[in-house]
Design brief:
Shape: globular
Structural class: alpha+beta
Mean pLDDT: 75
Low-confidence stretches: 1-34, 64-71, 96-101
Radius of gyration: 26 Å
Helix content: 25-40%
Largest sheet: 6 strands, mixed, barrel
Order of helices and strands: HHHHEHEHEEEEEHE
Oligomer: single chain
Strand order of the largest sheet: 1-7-4-6-5-8
Amino acid sequence: DNPLSGALRTDASLCPLWLTKCLPRSSQPLTRHYLEPLGSVLAACSVSRRHATMSGMQRDTPPETSPTAATQTPRGRSVCCALYLWVGASLLLWTAGCVTTTFRPPSTRGRVAVMEVTGYCNCGKCCSWEYAWFGLGRPVVSSGQNKGRAKQIGRTSSGAEARHGTLAADTARYPYGTLVEVPGYGLGRVEDTGSAIRGDHLDLWFDDHEKARQWGRQRKLVKIWLPSDTR
């Protein structure tokens, strides 16, 4: 029985879990789809390195007892380097939004309009929430008709998880699911509302308050696809 076979099975199951736990929950299913096939290969690479280390400890043995030690070490290092580069490139694509984008511009012609565009994030200042019991309790709505109700941070009024591309709009005019292409921001979808968002006003989600503040208040010529335009 090969004593390394148990390590191979263990690494193969733990490797993709370790990689996906480093990422936000919303992207874990898609990331697992891309990275889980690498689990067994990475585990084999790890075993190859362990075997090379064990072979290095037996340098005093005759050459015929370890004929593959000289060939496994360079190959194992090359495979590991290539896999690490591939994983790094995948994470960069994920950060840029190329992998996690769940919607694309429709093939139909969109409407064009000039809109006032602002930015917001998940912080209490942007989304009107605070911690109850002098900052020691759970998050609650801090103002408006829902003041005091529990607040789910990072969740929009439609129930979706806020991410790059999440837009807040006046749903009486631009219903949930409306796609909007904003110059300088990209394609987004209406998934949220706001008490101050009325008419031709759009609020873009950012992952940081400073980024939202730097965006400021701008007037942009945007392209709009209502849900009825994409059917």
